[in-house]
């Protein structure tokens, strides 16, 4: 027979407490976004944390097959034949040393500012809420345009 906690997916009291803490954190982040408290606290001006080490270590690599096929936009040196470069999710290529050094300081692409995941749960929650806020603004604009056009 299944007990109360197993039925709800909790194994221990610590799991239940952790679940409540995560839910409370989600509600606080949503409240902060709804009342623009991120702006008042200066979070948009805050530097982004470094990219997650797991993401950085697992970036795909590519071997350069020909000469004069571009340059690294961080160090501005041309790629050499048979050199290995790393490719980040937005498909930009960089020397391995250059992009690893860059991503240990910030989580975004140096060219297009595409953000990679971080290990900071507060910053990740902030990103989710900002994305949700932009989607909500687009939905409101679409609704307004459908009503008045």
UniProtKB/TrEMBL annotation:
Molecular function (Gene Ontology), one example: zinc ion binding
Signal peptide: none
Any one biological process term the GO annotation gives: protein ubiquitination
Annotated EC: 2.3.2.27
Parts forming coiled coils: none
SUPFAM superfamilies: RING/U-box
Enzyme class: transferase
Reaction catalysis annotation: S-ubiquitinyl-[E2 ubiquitin-conjugating enzyme]-L-cysteine + [acceptor protein]-L-lysine = [E2 ubiquitin-conjugating enzyme]-L-cysteine + N(6)-ubiquitinyl-[acceptor protein]-L-lysine
Pfam families: zf-RING_2 (PF13639)
Superkingdom to which the source organism belongs: Eukaryota
Domain RING-type, first and last residues per copy: 72-113
Keywords in alphabetical order: Metal-binding, Transferase, Ubl conjugation pathway, Zinc, Zinc-finger
Any one Gene Ontology cellular component term annotated for this protein: nucleus
Record flagged with keyword Nucleotide-binding: no
Family: Belongs to the RNF181 family.
Protein name as annotated: RING-type E3 ubiquitin transferase
Organism: Aquatica leii
Source lineage: Eukaryota, Metazoa, Ecdysozoa, Arthropoda, Hexapoda
């Amino acid at each position: 027979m299944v007990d109360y906690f197993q039925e709800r997916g909790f194994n221990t009291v610590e799991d239940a407490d952790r679940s409540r803490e995560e839910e409370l954190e989600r509600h606080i982040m949503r409240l902060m976004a709804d009342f623009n408290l991120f702006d008042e606290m200066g979070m948009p001006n805050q530097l982004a944390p470094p990219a997650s080490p797991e993401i950085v270590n697992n970036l795909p690599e590519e071997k350069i097959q020909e000469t004069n096929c571009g340059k690294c936009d961080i160090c501005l040196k041309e790629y050499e034949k048979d050199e290995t470069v790393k490719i980040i999710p937005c498909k930009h290529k960089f020397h391995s040393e250059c992009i690893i050094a860059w991503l240990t300081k910030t989580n975004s692409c140096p060219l297009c500012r595409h953000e990679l995941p971080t290990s900071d749960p507060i910053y990740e929650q902030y990103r989710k809420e900002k994305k949700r806020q932009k989607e909500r603004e687009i939905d409101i604009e679409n609704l307004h345009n459908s009503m008045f056009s």
